[in-house]
UniProtKB/TrEMBL annotation, chain A:
Chain coiled-coil ranges: none
Database matches in PANTHER family: ARABINOSE-BINDING PROTEIN-RELATED, DIACETYLCHITOBIOSE BINDING PROTEIN DASA
Protein name according to UniProt: Extracellular solute-binding protein family 1
Transmembrane residue ranges: none
UniProt lineage: Bacteria, Thermotogati, Thermotogota, Thermotogae, Thermotogales
From TrEMBL, chain B:
Xref: CDD domains: TM_PBP2
Protein name per UniProt: Binding-protein-dependent transport systems inner membrane component
Keywords from the UniProt entry: Cell membrane, Membrane, Transmembrane, Transmembrane helix, Transport
Organism whose genome encodes this protein: Thermotoga petrophila
Keyword Transport: yes
Main localization category: membrane
Record family assignment: Belongs to the binding-protein-dependent transport system permease family.
A Pfam match: BPD_transp_1
Subcellular location as annotated: Cell membrane
Gene Ontology biological process terms, A to Z: transmembrane transport
A GO-annotated cellular component: plasma membrane
Record-annotated ABC transmembrane type-1 domain positions: 69-282
Membrane topology reported for the UniProt record: Multi-pass membrane protein
Length: 449, 292
């Protein structure tokens, strides 16, 4: 009897110890964001794993009762890995990736963030960042980054070419340029550099594959075209304004000859590569793209560092230019344990506190916090100027290109790309191509609704 | 009772077959069965509703699926004969050489087989680059106009086929070489003594005796190319204007971009049935007088 009492006591102690020492385990996924944590040697290339490792460890130091596990998922495999994880109910607790789907929120798979945002957060985070995860009256995306990597928002000018062509790039940067001025500038930036009688240097490169639609959409939007009507019940991207915008882009290649042929076969990296290798003088992108130049030089992928300047997209006389703007952040999957849920949000607050969110500076990104952006790049006058201009353009002219969170653009994208391919390969006129796109897009819209 | 007795009698054979069958069951039969099951649902990760054969009805009324199916056939029947012909030609050409030279050529042709298809696709993206690519550089040297190989719907598919034919066939060359080595030398010697031409020897001796290997390569090649994905994914994403979209790529986008797993499963099942049908046809037509 005495022995059994002792055994029972020992068992109770064991169970008690196990219970009290049980750690909350948080798992999160992130795609490779090359953010340098404090103390990272400047000359050591980043792999993308440094930031999640560092931030997880820092959080665990503050919360010894929490175990944080991060998984680095590449952009290419993100969508299928996440879909498979959701299907098999093995999803992480939260993630930051290149994909998310508003249907997850609609079907109750996600945690709304509204109750966890402080009054200061509501004021400090950009509205466009909060809007990025707004579904059915609730917010589902914890803001982290403001803006895309600049595609469709701003242009980058390789100033030595502008100076060589006798163009005042400072005026463009400060005052903007009309579409007509843009064409004239582009003509001056197109030349035969090796004297063989053939054009081998162009003003700008254009691409129609995958993500490049931002840039073409910018011209369409600048001409007054819009993707949908007000309540998103109909796709209207075949309006006369939209057709004029697409015709303008086509003319850059076919009529003015200021962009190389083959836009239908070039993707985003192909176009960026043209800029990096100075085969064109105008690139697409923002501060992140400038950061990429430095990184490529460090990695030996580019031989020479250069310093382009941020400029707005051209505008139609009498109208404002437009800039593609949106935020991105972290998504939390539904939690059954309130204690764990609180801890996940605690971690998100930690990642996005003023000090830690400012680390996005090392990646040349803008943060989702207004107050932090004002302090970024203080020690680097060149970057400070580019980022300030980028933020100004985004703030003044920023708009969403692809509809609200509930709009099924991802299912339409391939049809829009097909329309661009048809336009650039001249198998259809811009009007025919956009008409075909609108028909397919409305069919998808009808099916989804 | 009789059956049990027979099983007991061959118990060791069954015992050794069991692991293989277990793997076959887990990694093939169950996924296929699950695929058939899922294809009957409106299953989009978020919800699952039984809809019977509605997915099949939808894909056959969808012009994009029909186009993808047609493209898949064009790609497969464009690649396989050329690639098999190339393998056969290379095998016959290198056969008379001494062993080290044969090994050298086999290694050279086998190398792309052990290289990542993504890397190969990236290299060919540069070769096909409309403005600064290698192919157009040579075209210009010859005084020809550059071609936007992957941007034109008339040249995109042939470009992909050409790339696959040039890069593929390494493993088939190795297989055919091994099969050729097993043909008794006196067949060729007797034919030569009888005064048979090289062409006659090739068509009347070499090809018939290589038929089992050719059949194997044909079936495996058809299956592999029917499921082609990575080169489409990296090089064209199904474009331009869906001219290179294949069923495998459409399955991928339907499942992982649109999250419509039920529809993607139905597409996969159609592909599965077609492949089984093609396999049976190939065995029937070409396997009639094959001696193993």
């Amino acid at each position: 009897m005495k022995t059994s009492w002792k055994v029972l006591l020992a068992l109770l102690l064991l169970v008690g110890t196990a219970l009290f020492s049980a750690k909350i385990t948080i798992t999160w996924w992130i795609n490779p964001w090359r953010i340098a944590p404090p103390g990272h040697p400047a000359d050591k290339p980043l792999t993308g794993e440094e930031f999640p490792k560092w931030i997880s460890e820092e959080f665990m130091k503050l919360h010894p009762d929490v175990e944080v596990k991060y998984v680095l998922v590449t952009n290419q495999e993100y969508a299928q890995k996440l879909a498979a994880a959701i299907a098999t109910k093995t999803q992480p607790d939260f993630f930051k990736g290149p994909v998310w789907d508003s249907r997850w929120a609609k079907s109750g798979l996600l945690e709304p963030i509204d109750d966890y945002l402080s009054p200061e957060d509501w004021k400090d985070f950009y509205e466009q960042c909060l809007k990025a995860g707004y579904v059915d009256g609730k917010h589902y995306m914890w803001p982290w980054v403001y803006g895309t990597n600049g595609m469709g928002a701003t242009m980058l000018l390789y100033t030595p070419d502008f100076e060589k062509a006798g163009i005042d790039w400072r005026k463009i940067v400060n005052e903007g340029w009309t579409m007509e001025e843009f064409v004239e500038v582009c003509k001056k930036l197109t030349w035969d550099s090796d004297g063989d009688g053939q054009i081998d240097h162009y003003a700008i490169g254009l691409g129609a594959k995958s993500d490049m639609v931002h840039n073409v959409l910018n011209f369409i939007y600048a001409h007054g075209g819009r993707l949908t009507n007000e309540d998103e019940t109909e796709v209207i991207l075949n309006s006369p304004e939209a057709i004029a915008g697409l015709q303008f882009v086509l003319d850059l290649i076919e009529k003015h000859g200021v962009a190389p042929k083959g836009a239908e076969a070039l993707d985003i990296y192909g176009v960026i590569n043209l800029f990096h290798t100075h085969k064109v003088s105008i690139g697409f992108g923002g501060p992140y793209e400038i950061g990429r130049i430095t990184r490529y030089v460090r990695e030996g992928r580019l031989s020479e560092a250069f310093y382009p300047v941020v400029a707005p997209f051209p505008h139609v006389e009498g109208k404002d230019p437009v800039a593609y703007a949106r935020g991105s952040g972290f998504i939390v999957f539904k939690q059954s344990d309130p204690k764990k849920r609180d801890m996940i949000f605690e971690f998100l607050k930690f990642i996005t506190n003023h000090e830690n969110i400012a680390l996005l500076e090392t990646l040349n990104y803008l943060t989702a916090r207004r107050s932090v952006n004002e302090l970024l790049y203080k020690d680097d006058p060149y970057m400070n100027e580019q980022v300030r201009r980028y933020a100004q353009i985004m703030d003044k002219y920023g708009m969403e290109f692809f509809g609200s969170q509930e709009f099924p653009w991802s299912q339409m994208n391939a049809h829009f790309v097909a329309a661009l391919e048809a336009t650039f390969s001249k198998s259809k006129t811009p009007e025919q191509a956009l008409n075909d796109f609108v028909r397919e897009a409305n069919r998808i819209l009808k099916k989804v609704k | 009772m009789n059956l049990l007795k027979r099983i007991y009698k061959h118990r060791y054979a069954y015992f050794f077959l069991l692991p293989h069958f277990a793997f076959f069951l887990i990694f093939f039969l169950l996924p296929v069965g699950n695929g058939v099951y899922l294809s009957l649902f409106d299953y989009n990760v978020f919800s699952k509703t039984f809809i019977g054969i509605e997915n099949y009805r939808e894909i056959f009324s969808d012009w994009l699926f029909r186009k993808a199916l047609l493209n898949t056939f064009i790609y497969t029947f464009g690649v396989v004969p050329l690639w098999l012909g190339k393998a056969l030609l290379v095998t016959v050409l290198i056969y008379p050489f001494r062993k080290p030279i044969k090994t050298f050529f086999k290694t050279v042709f086998y190398l792309p087989h052990v290289t990542s298809s993504v890397i190969i696709s990236l290299i060919w993206l540069w070769i096909f680059n409309p403005t600064f690519g290698l192919l157009n550089y040579f075209m210009k040297l010859l005084g020809l106009n550059p071609v936007i190989w992957l941007g034109n719907k008339l040249t995109a598919m042939p470009s992909l086929i050409a790339m696959q034919v040039i890069m593929g066939g390494g493993s088939t060359i190795v297989l055919l070489s091994a099969a050729m080595a097993s043909i008794p030398e006196y067949y060729f010697e007797s034919a030569k003594l009888e005064g048979a031409s090289s062409w006659k020897i090739f068509t009347k001796i070499t090809v018939p005796l290589l038929k089992p290997t050719i059949l194997y390569a044909l079936v495996m090649g058809t299956i592999a190319n029917f499921q082609t994905f990575s080169n489409i994914y990296v090089m064209t994403q199904g474009g331009p204007e869906f001219s290179t979209i294949t069923v495998a790529y459409l399955v991928y986008t339907t499942a992982f971009r649109d999250y419509n797993l039920g529809l993607a499963s139905a597409m996969s099942m159609v592909m599965f049935v077609i492949l089984v049908g093609l396999g049976i046809l190939q065995f029937k037509w070409l396997g009639s007088n094959v001696q193993y």
